[in-house]
Amino acid sequence: MSESCFFVDLNQDAIGLRKSEKFVPMRIVVLYNQVAATDSSGDLDVLKQCVAVEESLRQLGHESLRLSCSLNLGPVRDALLRLKPDVVFNLAESLDGTDRLMPVVAVFLEALGLPFTGASSLAMLTTTSKLVAKQRLLDQEISTPAWLTLRGDDCWRGAHERSWNPDRAIVKAIAEHASLGLGDDSVVECGRHSTEKLRSLIAARAEQFGTPHFAEQFIDGREFNLSLLAGTDGPDVLPPAEIEFINFAAGKPRIVGHDAKWDESTMEYINTPRRFEFPLSDRALLDELEALARRCWTAFDLQGYARVDFRVDNDGQPWILEVNANPCLSPDAGFAAALQQAGLSFTDAVERIIADAVRCSRVG
Hints:
The chain is of the alpha+beta class. It contains 11 helices and 13 strands. It has 2 domains: 231 residues, 2-Layer Sandwich (D-amino Acid Aminotransferase, Chain A, domain 1), CATH 3.30.470.20; 74 residues, no CATH class. 35% of the residues lie in helices and 19% in strands.
């Protein structure tokens, strides 16, 4: 049997309400972005999250009411003022078909003075834009891959403003998630593309998908994500997950693209399983990833729950790709899988997320 390491030190006192506290049932509105039956599986996934959260609220003894929102927030305001929820469980992932407007919902709830789960509007703003998030990471001296935009600078931007000449780049959306448009053709050989040609490709992708794109240094190596869950004494880092790339042909980019996330019939989906068991030789790396995830929680002032996505290059250097405030809570998503590995139920997590929302509203 191969040796493996398990490394999570959860604050057990923080799991749910303390037994000594008297339980007070609450009215909780589950707020989510409006979707249509014709939307993509990625968009419709929010309905799975609603069902899972509502079931946990029922188990906890809270009253839950589901409310959808669109860019027209007037009816939502009227409904919330009428319902007078104790907490809003914020599952709004986009507005008007774009993730770029996701922070608007948090601003809206703050303006109404309602406690809500997850990240504040400021944290949403700084994490929704990958470019803003990457600049924040650099300000904190945390490694993130260099990048190129359409804004006119003639060199790659990276740590300490140095010029970069990567072998490969990956072109992706600045503020859309769920791997929108990400596929093998998103990874390009820089030797075949001058900076001018690469910018032309960025512009073409932006026009194709109707949202701004950028190019990022492609880090060839291992992919990890670490989830965090709020506790009374700060966040707990849940067991790290690594995405494996099995049976990928030589030269095929090892990325978690759109098909790997959403199309169960594809080779990419079938051959990118998530694993939580690691050899003891990975312990130092995993400790470093946990420390970096905690630094991100502090640097972005995150609340409730979050996920940090990493690539680790062939020299063992971790690079942060994204910081995800309010990551997907579907039962089959990575956050739920990490909870299971930590010995926590989904309902435990929902209880802690709500408790943090109440705590943060009192502090604010």
